[in-house]
C-alpha cells in the first residue's frame, strides 16, 4: 500500500498524483515535487489516501518535501520575473511585427526554463524572437501555441451569466460540447446566446444534458397522438422543467397535461385522415362517327373543248 496525494500547480489546474510516504499533509499545503519538466511547487488538493500497487498510476513520483519559507520566496520572485519577461516579449513582438498574441509567461520553479504561451491563426516564425529572449534572460526559452479555450482559462473573465468563467474557476479539463446538447434542452440556436467568451460553445451546455435526455425519454415525443381522459390531440411541446406536455386538439386548442398522468396506453400514432377523392370530370362529348364513303375523284379538266381563239392556227 502507498499513500498518494493529488496536487495542482495552478488555480483550477489539472490534478497530478504523487506518493507522499509518511509525510503528514493537509489540503492547501504547499509541496515541492519533481516533474518531467523539472522541479515545481504545488498545492495539495486531496489529502493522502492509500492505494494498492495495482491501483498506482504508472511512473508516479514522490513528493520531495514540504515547501519552506525560502521556497515560497523563490516562487514569489518567479512571479516578478514573469511580469518583466512578458513586457519585454510584447515589445519585441511589436518590433518584429509578428502576427501573434502573447497570453502568459511561466517560469519553472528552479528558473531553468521560461514558457511563453501565445495564440496565432497560423504558424509563426519566431526564431529571431527566441534569440532575443534567450539573450535577455539567459535561460531556456519555450514558445507554446495554445487554443482559444486555453486562452480564456488563463485570462479569465465574466460570462454571460454574470459569474466567473467556469474554465478559470473550477473546470480542470475541457469536455466536448456539441449543438445537439443545445437542441436537446430546447435552447435557441443563436450563436451569441450559446457561445462563450472564447467563441466556442458554452461548457455549461453539458451540465444538464444527461438529465434532460433521461427525462425526455419518459415523456411522449412531439408529433405523437394522446388520448388522456377527455383530452385528445397531438403533442406539440415538451417542458422538462415543469414536467408537462402541450397538446393541440382537433378544435385547435392547446391543453397542458402533466406527463405523470400520461400512461403508455394513452400514447398512439397520429390517425391518418382519409385522402379526399377528386371529383370526376365530365367526359367530353363524342363527335358523330363519319360514314365510310368511297373517296370522290376530283373532276378532271377537259382539254378537247374548242372555242374562239383556242383552235390551232391555220397557215396562210
Index terms:
single chain; 316 residues; alpha+beta; GMP Synthetase, Chain A, domain 3; five-stranded antiparallel beta sheet; 13 strands; elongated
What does this protein look like?
By secondary structure, the chain is of the alpha+beta class. The chain folds into 4 domains: 2-67, no CATH class; 73-146, GMP Synthetase, Chain A, domain 3; 151-206, no CATH class; 219-268, SH3 type barrels (Roll), CATH 2.30.30. Helices cover 22% and strands 25% of the residues. It contains 7 helices and 13 strands. A 5-stranded mixed beta barrel has the order 1-2-5-3-4. A 5-stranded antiparallel beta sheet has the order 12-11-10-9-13, with no helix packed on it. Strands 6-7-8 form a 3-stranded mixed beta sheet, sandwiched between helices. A hairpin with a 4-residue loop joins strand 3 (30-34) and strand 4 (39-51). Helix 1 (69-95) packs across helix 2 (127-137). The radius of gyration is 43 Å and the shape is elongated. The N and C termini lie far apart (157 Å). The mean pLDDT is 85.
